[in-house]
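Convert to structure. Protein one:
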Amino acid sequence: MKKIISIIAIVAITMSSLTACGDDKPKKRGNKIPVAAGQIDTLSYMLGVNFGTMAKQQFGIFNPDIEQVKMGINDFLLTGDVEEQSFLDGHQQFMAFMNDSKTQSFGRAKFERDRYQGDRPDTLPALPELYTKENSRTEISYIIGTLIGADIKMSVTEDDELSRAWVIEAFSDAQNIENFQEADKHLNIPAQEINEFYVRYMQERRMREHEKAMKELEENKAAGVEWLKEVEQQEGVQKTESGILYRIERQGNGTFPTKDDDVVLVNYEGKVRTGDIFDSSYERNEPISFPLNGVIKGWTEGMKLIDEGGEITLWIPSDLAYGDRRRSDVIGPGEALMFKVELLEVNPEK
């Protein structure tokens, strides 16, 4: 899933500059949801309360249509994806709305009215129009809901399930909270129990993520070892003392890089053992230059095996690549890598 900036954070930053239903409705169980670490209902309710409280603080100034906001949350949790064009268009529209001069003027006027403590309400500045035909209250409210839905979805792991009904129920409950001291009057779960659940949830989540990462690391390392064994049997493949496998695809003119601080100009393509490409200068249609001591160890050593004008294929064990850490969505922890590299020039003139 493509990462986007939290919409709550965006609004907090923007507003500070101004001022310097899908599931069946859940049945309340004795006005409480039983609290159990990892329970779907409790996790969903906790998130609904947290995001409902933040949304009221940040979006309350706009007096959004809460029913439309809840519909947007529900729809995104049901089928939403941050990579969908409709979501990206809505995100862009909301940011344009936030930066519009009318919204800025409205925010300043609202701030002045809210802080006024005198007894002459007729002297307060009138609130300018906020919503327009292009940015109606209904449309902006729904977009806000989809953005909150995206934040909720990204705040949990892929293994966590959510109840949309309890998220929406909690979001509604949070809209009735005027001060923290009286919050429990409006909630299915007392605020203290929500906080305690959050602590347990985060502890369990960190444990699950660690166990998952360790399992992925072990599986990748084992698969990488088997892959390199198979590659080593291929015709023309040689092995260095450190464990790098390589095959000279084309000889060059005899000018080799020999020092770690030599700069090379190359075209290359990088793949993982599954064949997925994670980087390619060919796709960018632009070669790249770098000093050999500025890349992974496998490249530093491997590029000294080929001369200017030549081409080489490198198979690099994980400990000479990115090691045990995750590099990207494609390069997981403990991944062995393959590179096809053309050495265009050694120490090109600047």
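Protein two, convert as well:
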Amino acid sequence: MTLGIVILIAAGVLIYLGLAHRVLDRLHLSDRGALFVIGLLVVGTFIDLPLSRRPEIFINVGGALVPLGIITYVLIKANTALERAKALIASLVTGVAVYVTAGLLAGFGHGYRDVLEPMFIFAILAGTIAYATGRTRRGAFVAAVGGILIYDIIIALQAIGQGLQTTIHFGGAGVFDTTILAGFLALGFVEIFGELLERVQKGPDEGEEGGAGDN
């Protein structure tokens, strides 16, 4: 059982116990809808769809298609066009930042793996940047999940461009775990730091989209 699936099961328990209403409301998901999505993510990790034979390209349903569908839904439900634009820009920034970081880490060899796995490094980085740029729950979630998906696309296009003889796997197991962890970290950062910021400001600014209580 991978880390991503463990996180999803834990999230499912919290949702079942009714402890995630506020977050789900901001994402425009009901308890039943969220549990259905979690089921799709888990089952989808076992389904790979072939896209091409030369080069050999597959796309994982749970690691790529379902997350893409989720963030598309969240974007459609966003309050304003500005919020959508900010979330998309934040996704691009997150994806490029993860890609650059991966390149820097490659220069150190594999020694850093003894301290922290790349999955956690990328997830923490994506979650942090997504929170800093997205700010709202919706924006941060879209930026984190979308950023990891963009990173995966960049890596795949790089492999195709260089003519590498390898199987390209969009949303593979490692990417799935990183995507799930990044998304939940981004939401967690908004919950924790957003609430602290609101208390410092003595409540969210009126009409402001950035407060954790509003989004």
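The longest helix spans residues 173-200. Confidence is low (pLDDT under 50) at residues 205-213.
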